[in-house]
Amino acid sequence: MIPARVPRVLRMGPARLTAGLDHCRRLDLPAHRTLHGLVEPRDLEELISYANEVDMRGRGGAAFPFARKLRAVADATGSRGDCVVLVNCAEGEPASSKDAMLLTRNPHLVLDGAVLAAEALGAREVVVATAGGEVAEASVAAAVAERRAANVSGGAESRVPIRVVGIEERFISGEGGALVRAVNGEEGIPPGRKKRAAVSGVHGLPTLLSNTETYAQLALLAEYGPGTYAAVGTSKEPGTILLTVSGGAAHGAVIETPTGTLLADVLALCEAEAGDGVLVGGYHGAWLSAEVAQAVEISREGMKLAGATLGAGIIVPLGESTCPLGEAARVTSYLAAQSAGQCGPCRLGLPDVARAMCALVEGTGSVDAVRRSVRVVERRGACFHPDGTAKFVLSALDAFESEIALHLEHGSCGRPVRGVLPMPEPEAEPEYRLEVDWSRCQGHGLCAHLLPEFVDLDDYGFPSFRTIPGWMAREARRAVDMCPALALRLARTTGDGPPPVGSPLRLVRDGVLKKAGESVPLLTRVNGFTGISRARG
């Protein structure tokens, strides 16, 4: 059964990535071979030539030229002939479902592309890294088993080993360095120092790392040849692309469409009104006004002209029934909670950005305060997460200028936060508290310097503590270990602390609790700061 998070499939133009899905819920190996035939191996130079001819780019968001990746891995491998092909299926973006759709419904197309690259490079194995869905992982594992069974019964499937690895789902899971670390059995967070996977990736070997749709596109390019592949789409960006449309759309879907299609036509297909704006490129993307959204085309070039990036093909129309500023603050709080927490901009800066955004929603903050907090995190992080979050926030400030004025003047724009922007279901996580032996504490204040978000000092330099979320446990233990007086210890809470991350707190206004079933903006504690969420009273 197709999971609820994978929407239905629609298309505009020819069916390529979605061929056969009108008739089958999932294409098994026989059905896939009937549609696409048996993959013929290509040598490396031929694949590179094909990719260069159609200017094939990665579909995970960065749009890096695929031919350059192939060449870089080949050069790093040299005469050793020992490398790995890694399929990045860690779709950490809550608003994206295209990779999950491919894995669940058309996994063999993805595997065909990965195997093509592996054979051309002489790779030792293909690794498929999945996150966030047992169904998707099971579908890929079943596809691998189908190929093995076909070979046992005399088939001609490639014998390149394919390994499926499940990793933890987080927003940062799909970052290249984080993914390689997770596959290698380490903590799945971006490394402090940038390492090129093409030089040192899985097991320290040169690794061809690209996302799910990219490998599916490679399989189609080899099947059709550059000429037929480029028969649809624009001359500069030929082919089709997968988009995930959600948010205020009446019919959320994964849509396959040729590049060059108008965004307005895509929205019309999903019965979506742009309303106060359309988010393009996901939660590290940018907002387009309704007027701009009507004229922009679906392509990297078209989005660049509109001041946005296509990214991983995420389209989220906002509609007019929700508070746009509250929605933006809600996502900002989520992004702050999803950081690796390993550098200052993530651990300290992003929570400050979220607090400033939430204060703006409540009418007590200022645009200048938000911009100041954003400047602190830009271009200073260990990975791109702070910069992507900053881009999202600054775009929201520009797009929702009139709504911001209403919040600052009246404390609200008059609309509730309905949770239109997709967000994963919150999961309870452990919480901790710092306990102090007052007979030992000498008021050094070092704990407040190490954990400024959770420790306050009184006028005499003695601490008081707030509950610490699980993601900060490592830093809290560090504060315990470094206490000069050995006065601290870390204890697990027993349910008497604040609600888990993302759970709603009922908001009483004017002494009246909102009636059951009414959608209202509610205060939510997210990793120690206040955010906005939607709940039913």
Characterization of this structure:
By secondary structure, the protein is α/β, with parallel strands linked by helices. The protein folds into four domains: 8-229, Rossmann fold (3-Layer(aba) Sandwich), CATH 3.40.50.11540; 240-317, Ubiquitin-like (UB roll); 324-426 and 501-536, de novo design (two linked rop proteins); 431-492, Alpha-Beta Plaits. Helix content is 37%, strand content 17%. The strands form six sheets. A six-stranded mixed sheet has the order 1-7-6-10-8-9. A four-stranded parallel sheet has the order 4-3-2-5, with helices on both faces. It is globular. The two termini are 32 Å apart. Residues 495-537 have low confidence and may be disordered.
